[in-house]
């Protein structure tokens, strides 16, 4: 059985769909703190609260999972409003799952990190796998600490835990979770509804982004790779496409010529975005498990507008 924790989230819903396509619906148990999202109602679902170790244990006992994907997290923007909850949920949730995975001899564990683990003193362009990392958001340093714990559980307990530093993910099947990159999703909804959008990030704020189909394919590729090919047990850099709001607006205008973008001032998410890299070097992922991006900004924009117009 595969257990997906945080299955209702932006990544979780799409991982459940992809994993059910591979293993069959009955083999993939979705779980979250509220009722199953509509898109994933076609298979087993459990109520899970990652802050309740007894509840987690019961689900592990009942399903004896061979793979566990832990997506539950508080993201960057919400994390700055609720710093203690973000730290507790992101850290205690991970530690509880790592301990249960060792106890129940889970074969493989996936846990998402983020380009948010880099900070103001990290190289901003083509950020390498290893460099100075001084993240200044709770979300960022909880993910950095989580990477250290993942590497530790692999070294000390032999747990096969794997991780990807996702860039900002763009998708249409489920809502984003309160992050700084959410503008790149909202803009498509607004472009179709009102042909205008007010961006909370400035025109020249470039960030590493990725279309969700690429992110899901990368996750499955990483999890399918033979263990001896995995040289990174903290978390793999993954770059995707780097663009700023102005460039994304120009791409949307190719499809909706009358689309207009404007920019809000002093949004707290601007400072978060300014602390993150503008582009990422993901050559290690190419070397270890053959990573290749498929969706550039043109194809991603086409897919988003097409699917949101249905
Ligand atoms: C966030 N979407 O904005 C997440 C992600 C790189 C960004 O970690 O917090």
From TrEMBL:
- Gene Ontology molecular function, alphabetical: L-threonine 3-dehydrogenase activity
Could you tell me which residue ranges the NAD-dependent epimerase/dehydratase domain spans?
A: 2-239
Which residues, if any, are the signal sequence?
A: none
Q: What InterPro entries does this protein map onto? A: Epimerase_deHydtase, NAD(P)-bd_dom_sf, NAD(P)_epim/dehydratase
Q: Name one GO biological process term.
A: L-threonine catabolic process
Query: Which Pfam families does the UniProt record give?
Result: Epimerase
Which superkingdom heads the taxonomic lineage of this protein's source? Bacteria
Report which residue ranges the record marks as coiled coil.
none
* Family according to the record: Belongs to the NAD(P)-dependent epimerase/dehydratase family.
What protein is this chain from? NAD-dependent epimerase/dehydratase family protein
Q: Which organism is it from?
A: Mucilaginibacter agri
């Amino acid at each position: 059985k595969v257990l997906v924790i945080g299955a209702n989230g932006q990544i979780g819903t799409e991982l459940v769909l992809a994993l059910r396509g591979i293993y069959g619906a009955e083999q993939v148990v979705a779980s979250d703190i509220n009722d199953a999202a509509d898109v994933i109602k076609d298979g087993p679902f459990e109520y899970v609260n990652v802050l309740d170790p007894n509840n987690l244990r019961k689900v592990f006992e009942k399903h004896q999972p061979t793979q566990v994907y832990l997506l539950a997290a508080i993201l960057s923007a919400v994390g700055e409003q609720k710093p203690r909850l973000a730290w507790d949920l992101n850290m205690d949730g991970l530690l509880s799952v790592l301990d249960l995975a060792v106890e129940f001899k889970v074969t493989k564990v996936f846990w998402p990190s983020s380009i948010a683990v880099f900070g103001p003193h990290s190289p901003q362009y083509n950020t390498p796998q290893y460099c100075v990392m001084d993240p200044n958001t709770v979300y960022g340093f909880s993910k950095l600490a989580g990477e250290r714990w993942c590497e530790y559980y692999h070294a000390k307990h032999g747990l096969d835990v794997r991780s990807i530093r996702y860039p900002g993910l763009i998708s249409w099947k489920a809502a984003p979770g309160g992050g700084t990159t959410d503008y790149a999703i909202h803009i498509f909804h607004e472009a179709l509804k009102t042909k205008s959008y007010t961006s909370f990030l400035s025109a020249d704020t470039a960030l590493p982004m990725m279309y969700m189909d690429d992110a899901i394919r990368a996750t499955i590729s990483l999890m399918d790779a033979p263990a001896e090919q995995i040289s990174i047990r903290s978390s793999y850099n993954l770059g995707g496409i780097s663009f700023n709001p102005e460039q994304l607006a120009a791409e949307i205008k190719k499809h909706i010529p009358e689309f207009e973008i404007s920019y809000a001032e002093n949004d707290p998410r601007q400072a978060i975005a300014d602390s993150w890299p503008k582009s990422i070097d993901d050559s290690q992922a190419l070397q270890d498990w053959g990573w290749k991006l498929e969706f550039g900004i043109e194809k991603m924009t086409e897919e988003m507008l097409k699917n949101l117009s249905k």
